[in-house]
Amino acid sequence: MKKLLPLALVFAGLALSTATSARAGDLWLDLIEGEETNEAAVLTDLVTAGVIYVGEAHTIDRHHAIQLHLFQALAARGVSLALCLEQLEARDQPALDRFNRGELSFDEFAAEITWAKKWKNFADYRALCEFAQQNGIPVRALNAPSATIRAVSRGGGLANLPADQRALLADEIVTDDPVYERLMNLTLAVHMAMDPAKLRPVFEAQVARDETMAAHIIAARHTDAANGLRTAFVIVGAGHVRHGLGTADRVRRREPGIAERIILMTESGQLVLTESDKAASREISISHADLRAIGRPPGDYLLVLPLSRAEKPAAK
């Protein structure tokens, strides 16, 4: 399996990712049963979950369309939801709570937290956030500050992180995860400048992000504890949850027995790299043997979209 991706997209979630709302030509696959399925069956199953991960490649428009489509469909079925976003830093939750209460519009909220500086395509999440606000669904910020994550990756790991920055991460961070670390190391090789000696700090940075997001996902489920647990609808880079590793694994540790569902989407030729991304990247090969060694399916469901005529690679 060959990929040409920048490190930024690795952290965002390298993936099996791309899709749009249901349309002719879409194909749902049940990755557990190894069979075709349909959207109605998928939604019936998702209703039973405590946490639903919709893995994305952050810059693909069709991913955002299917996320909104599924979110609205679950809300229409009466599921008590919490919208959880990797694309927001947890320290911005006070402003986000004002948005949740209707005191701020999307634009006012984005300006207050300078979201455009933290996440370039933040506007792609407008429809999700506004639907949540209009329907009384709480939105939860998941992520650690990017500066803190960089400090871990570039400063020699968690052990060297200053106390004030460590306080911005989850209290419990478990970095002993050989399966996830092996997969991450294979994936990180895409970055031209990646020195093998730096892999461990970069992996610890990834785990720090996963643990922090997991802690906030659990908190989101308890938003209205008196009225029962909410189903966390998590928008996250697919690399954080593929094979049930990363963030998903850390949520399970915090809430044993939680019913999770992982939805992935194909790229279908939609991932476009800038020239600078390409220059900082190299082609890598992750074999089927590498992935089979993980011993887990990549997710529960995969939405496959056909390549359009313009997207199909030229015949060789």
Describe it.
The protein is an alpha/beta fold and 316 residues long. The chain has a single domain (2-304), classed as Rossmann fold (3-Layer(aba) Sandwich), CATH 3.40.50. 39% of the residues lie in helices and 15% in strands. The chain contains 14 helices and ten strands. It has helices at residues 7-13, 39-46, 61-76, 93-100, 106-112, 115-118, 126-134, 146-154, 163-166, 178-188, 199-221, 247-254, 275-279, 288-292; strands at residues 2-3, 27-30, 35-37, 51-56, 81-89, 139-143, 231-237, 260-265, 284-285, 301-304. The strands form two sheets. Strands 3-2-10-8-4-7-5-6 form an eight-stranded mixed sheet, sandwiched between helices. It has a two-stranded antiparallel sheet with strand order 1-9. Strand 2 and strand 3 (35-37) form a beta hairpin. The longest helix is centred in the middle third of the chain and has 23 residues, at 199-221. Residues 1-21 and 309-316 have low confidence and may be disordered.
